[in-house]
Amino acid sequence: MSGVTRIPRSVRVAARIAGGAAIVAGTALVVGVGPFLRGLAAVSPPAILLAVALTAIATAAAAWRWQTVAGRLGLPLHGGTAVAAYYRSQFLNTVLPGGILGDVDRAYGHGRRNARIGQATRAVAVERIAGQVVQVLATLALLVPLGLLSPRSPAVWAAGVGAAAAVVVVGAAAVVPHGRRALRRELALLRPLFSRPRTVLVVVGASLIVVAAHAATFVVAALAVGVSADSDEIAVVALIVLAASAIPLSIGGWGPREAVAGSAFAVIGLGAGTGVAVSTTFGVLAMIAVAPGAVVLLAGIPRVLTARTQRSSA
């Protein structure tokens, strides 16, 4: 399709990991390792319990969004199955490099069960992209009236990077005839998906629940660190940090999140070190909160081994 798509997947993943590591290292050079250690020390049982509960809400909402999109594309998906698969996906995204392998696993598993891997992959991609679009729009809708956006704002950086990446990908695809045909085919397939108002309402509503739950987890992290600021103010910063987390340069979520958190906290007068500490606590809480995905993953291993044994003996 283009030079970008011809780059081996392993190289793209390595570049993302290297980018995330460079950002974390650069942040540590600016603020030191103290804020990272402070963030680790702030993790407490009450904060973990709240993070687990909020992540359960976010996971259920995201699974609902996925179930709705998949159903509109003609792929049945049970609610319990969707929640379990989403937990596993989040866990894999956290512990594996690249941050998307969990979504690949989720799409493949759903597609294999329905013998339609391509359509299942499309459903996962659409629901994730739709969620990120809603997140960015919600963040901008909150920040613009407050007058908190400027050309140097972290939220503007995040939105700009995301928009630039989208333009590059779409532009590269549209340059060649094969790419243009693929774009037209995808638009034709996705147009009926959002033709029903109910589908749009579910996708938007579920995405807002996900964003609110993650923002609340960030507030919990800030309280655990001991930040003395209004929860509303921290929630605004949380939205900015979450928007930056969508930048595809991270190691299990670590990277732009810490750099933007430091910048955002410095802007509101709480210090870059405090922002990095809160982001570190948030990152650890997020990793612990998706631990149920490891249970789902381990529970599925016997079934996989049994299926392989049956295929080999057939």
* Poorly predicted parts: 1-5
Query: Using only CA atoms, what is the Rg?
Result: 20 Å
Largest beta sheet, briefly?
A: none
Strand content: under 5%
Characterise this structure:
The chain is globular and about 50 Å long. It contains 14 helices and no strands. The protein has one domain. 82% of the residues lie in helices and 0% in strands. Helix 5 crosses helix 14 and helix 10 packs across helix 13. It has 314 residues and is mainly alpha-helical. The N terminus is likely disordered.
Write the layout of secondary structure elements.
Elements: H1 3-6, H2 9-31, H3 34-41, H4 45-72, H5 79-95, H6 101-114, H7 117-146, H8 154-175, H9 177-190, H10 197-225, H11 231-245, H12 256-267, H13 272-289, H14 292-313
Helix pairs in contact: 2-12, 3-13, 4-5, 4-7, 4-10, 4-13, 5-6, 5-14, 6-7, 7-10, 7-11, 8-9, 8-11, 10-11, 10-13, 11-12, 12-13
Summarize this structure briefly.
This protein has one domain (9-167, 199-300).
Notable features of this structure?
single chain; 314 residues; mainly alpha; 14 helices; 0% strand; globular
